[in-house]
Write the structure tokens for this entry.
Amino acid sequence: FYGGSISANSELQLEVVDFLWKNVQLDGSLIVFAKNPMGSTRTFTNGDPLIQYGYRCGRCKLQNVKVLNKGIDWDSKNNIYWKHDVQRVETLKIILQGNAEFEATNVIFKGNHIFEVPNGFRMIIASCDISVSG
């Protein structure tokens, strides 16, 4: 984490090991979820699984990014905070399958977005303004 800010009532959820935050401004909800946050699983011939820590992990890099959305619905009666079961109005959600990578540089994300990156792919978003109208 280098620089940036997180506004009051914002939400940051990270389930990824390899993550870079550089000059990110968060005003709303940001969720980064890696399907293999610790590493990949290999299965031996006898069927026993083995986690290979740090191997084929998802990666996320955010540099000079603004996340602007309505985030959590703090007025919802259905929120169960201790279970982390909350209602959201809008969120930026990044889902990384396997060893997928997501990079965003000089970007403003406005509104509700879900980016899902398949195993073995890298998604790069740079110098654009993604807006939801309506």
Notes: The chain has one domain: 2-119.
